[in-house]
Amino acid sequence: MGVPDADGQGPPDGLPGLPPEWGRVVVPDDASALAEEARQVRRELRQAPRHTHRPIRLRLGLALLVLLVSVLVTLAGLAAVTWPRPNRSGGAPTVLPRVTTAAPSALGPLPALDLVGADDTPVPLRSLLPAMIILVDACACVDEVGTAAATAPAGVTVVTVTEGRHAGPTTAAGVRPLGDPAGGLRSYLHLAARPDTAVALLVDRQGTLVRVVPELGPAADYRDDLARLPG
Fold first, then answer.
1. How far apart are the first and last CA of the chain?
2. pLDDT by residue (tens digit) across 209-228?
3. What is d(CA 71, CA 89) in angstroms, rounded to the nearest whole number?
């Protein structure tokens, strides 16, 4: 088995790059072809005087080296064929953002956050309870917010929250707009904003988040839970 040179026309049965004093080295296609030579070397070692062992050992070492080189060449060829190629498109890989629309895995207490009112004054979120908190930074959803305000029972505050320092516009009567400067509410609940979608949080008097409505829609979807908030 020969090793081709740079132009692909290397010697058919020799190995380049070996010391010239080794003579012409031929790598067999089948390693078993060296078995007879190995037996001959061992026979000569047994028969020859001890002072002649060194040249014979050199011949044995050369045969083993040839065998090793043939194995390495074979492994290198296999690696070249099976090694995965890099992406040659030249562009960076596209990472799709993770969008979460489901409720948190465990509903718990509402975080003690201070939001910002229309006059830029801080408003403690827990001072509004019980409340229906609607996150509208991805969608004003005027009709849906108006339906929620009309459905909320007495004593339940309906709040719209926009991410940023400025509260959004009043979209319906009885609705209090607030701003969330640091986006702490979405971050706490791991809720990603989706275009044209408002998320509603139903929080009872004790400050417990009892339900997350991932997409505010018809009142029938949340009316029963909303009615239980004042209790």
1. 88
2. 999 999 999 999 999 999 99
3. 35
